[in-house]
Specification:
Blueprint: E1 8-15, H1 24-34, E2 43-48, H2 53-62, E3 66-71, H3 81-94, E4 102-108, H4 111-123, E5 127-132, E6 134-138, E7 141-148, E8 153-159, E9 164-168, H5 178-183, E10 185-190, H6 210-215, E11 218-222, H7 229-242, E12 245-248, H8 250-254, E13 275-279, H9 285-288, E14 296-301, H10 308-311, E15 314-317, H11 320-344
Parallel strand pairs: 1-2, 1-4, 2-3, 3-10, 4-9, 5-9, 11-12, 11-13, 13-14, 14-15
Antiparallel strand pairs: 6-7, 7-8
Bound molecules: flavin-adenine dinucleotide.
Length: 345
C-alpha cells in the first residue's frame, strides 16, 4: 500500500500486548502535545498479536492523523525486547519510514521503551536521543534536554539528521475531540518477518529489578525516611505480601539500601503502576517525575506537611516503624484466611 510521504513526521510507536501496553495512553497524550511543532499532525503505530480497534479510537481521540494497527501473529504477551524491536522495525518500514527521513519516532519512557527506541535508531541509521525531559522541533532539527550522570548533569542535544528516536514520559490524557477522531485514518498492516526465537524463561523475582518495576501493578517505594537497610528489609516483606515491586528514591540508592535499577525519578526509572505506595518519601519534583500521571499514590509519612501529601490520593501520617509491622501482620492473616477458606471449599 502506498502512503503519502511528508517532509516531516511525528510517529509514536507502541507495542500493545502484555506489560508493554502500559504507558501507551500517556505516550499518545505526550505525542499530541508535541504535534504542535508538526502542524498538529502525528501518527500512531500499534504493534501486537492483534491490536484492537480500541487503540485506533484512542489514537483518534488524541488527535492522530493516521493510526497504523500492525498485527504479527507470532507476538505474545511476554515478548523479549529483541522480538518487539523486530516487529516495530517491520511496522515502521511498512508505514513508510526510511533512513534519512526527517521523522521523530517516540516510544514510552521506561526500561522497555528506552531500549526499543535506541535499537530502532540503530536499525534505521538514525539518532538515539535517549529518555528526554523536553523536546522541541523546528524545520530540519530536533533539540532535547535530558538527564545525565544519574541526574547530576543535564544534556542539551541538537541534531539535524533524522530520523530521531526518543523515549518520552507520558503526558496527561487529552480530552476527546470528535473532530480529530473523525478525520483520523486507520491502516492495517500484516507483519510477516520471522521474529527471533523465544528465549527459555528465566524469570525470577528480584527486589527492585527493572522487569518487576516495568510491568508492576503495585510498587512499594521507600525513601530516606526508611532510615537504612532494616527499614528496606521490612519494605521488601510488605511488597512480597502485596505482590508488589520494590523501588527507592535517589538517596536510598546512593546509600546502597536498594539497587540502582530500583531508582524512580527524573534520573531513574519512569513507572506507571496502578498504585504507587510511597513510604518515607518527601515528594520532591525530581522523584515524582518518575511516577506516571495516572498512578494512584498512597503516601505514608511522619510529617503532616510533607509535599507528597499534596499529590497523594491516600495519605497516612504515621511513622513507618509503627505502621508497617501491623500492616504486614494483617496482610499475612488475611492471606492465611483466604487459603483456609479455599481449602475448605
Ligand atoms: C538533577 C537531579 C535529579 C534527581 N533525580 C532524582 C531521582 O531520579 N529520584 C529521586 O528520588 N530523587 C532525585 N533527585 C533528588 C531529589 O531532589 C531529592 O533529594 C530526593 O527525591 C529526596 O528523597 P527522599 O524523599 O527519599 O528524601 P527526603 O526528602 O529526605 O524525605 C524523607 C521523608 O521521610 C519522612 N520520614 C522521616 N522519618 C520517617 C518515618 N519514621 N516514617 C515515615 N516517614 C518518615 C520525612 O518526613 C521526609 O518527608 C534528583 C535531584 C537532582 C538535583
Amino acid at each position: 500500500m502506498q502512503i503519502e510521504k511528508t517532509a516531516r513526521r511525528l510517529v509514536a510507536v507502541m507495542p500493545v500486548d502484555g506489560e508493554q501496553r502500559l504507558g501507551s495512553a500517556e505516550l499518545l497524550a505526550a505525542t499530541a502535545t508535541l504535534s504542535t511543532d508538526f502542524g498538529g499532525a502525528f501518527e500512531a503505530v500499534f504493534v501486537g498479536k492483534s491490536p484492537e480497534d480500541d487503540w485506533a479510537a484512542k489514537a483518534g481521540e488524541a488527535g492522530a492523523t493516521i493510526t497504523w494497527l500492525a498485527r504479527h501473529p507470532e507476538l505474545g504477551s511476554t515478548d523479549s525486547t529483541d522480538r518487539l524491536v523486530s516487529a516495530c522495525h517491520e511496522a515502521l518500514e511498512a508505514a513508510g519510514l526510511v533512513s534519512g527521513d526527517q521523522a521523530l519516532v517516540l516510544c514510552a519512557a521506561g526500561p522497555g521503551g528506552e531500549e526499543v527506541a535506541a535499537r530502532l535508531a540503530i536499525r534505521f541509521g538514525g539518532v538515539p536521543l535517549g529518555r528526554c525531559a523536553d523536546i522541541t522541533c523546528a524545520a530540519g532539527s530536533v533539540s532535547v534536554r535530558r538527564a545525565a550522570f544519574g541526574g547530576r548533569a543535564e544534556l542539551h542535544l541538537s541534531s539535524t539528521k533524522g530520523p530521531w528516536f526518543a523515549a518520552v514520559r507520558g503526558g496527561k490524557r487529552v480530552p476527546e475531540s470528535t473532530e480529530t477522531a473523525r478525520s483520523s485514518r486507520v491502516e492495517r498492516l500484516e507483519l510477516v518477518s520471522p521474529l527471533p526465537p523465544i528465549a527459555p524463561s528465566r524469570h525470577t523475582r528480584t527486589a527492585g529489578s527493572s522487569t518487576a518495576l516495568a510491568g508492576a501493578r503495585i510498587i512499594v517505594a521507600g525513601g530516606r525516611g526508611m532510615g537504612g537497610e532494616t527499614g528496606f528489609a521490612l519494605l521488601q516483606e510488605l511488597s512480597d505480601e502485596m505482590g508488589a515491586a520494590l523501588a527507592g528514591s535517589l538517596p536510598t540508592i546512593d546509600a546502597g539500601w536498594a539497587p540502582v535499577s530500583a531508582q524512580v525519578g527524573q534520573s531513574g526509572k519512569y513507572v506507571t503502576p496502578e498504585t504507587y505506595v510511597a513510604i518515607g518519601i518527601s515528594g520532591t519534583p525530581q522523584h515524582l517525575a518518575g511516577v506516571g500521571p495516572e498512578s494512584r499514590i498512597v503516601a505514608i509519612n511522619s510529617d503532616p506537611e510533607a509535599e507528597i501529601f499534596k499529590v497523594a490520593d491516600v495519605g497516612v501520617v504515621a511513622k513507618w516503624e509503627e505502621l508497617l509491622p501491623a500492616l504486614i501482620k494483617k496482610l499475612r492473616a488475611t492471606a492465611k484466611t483466604d487459603l483456609t477458606t479455599a481449602a475448605g471449599r
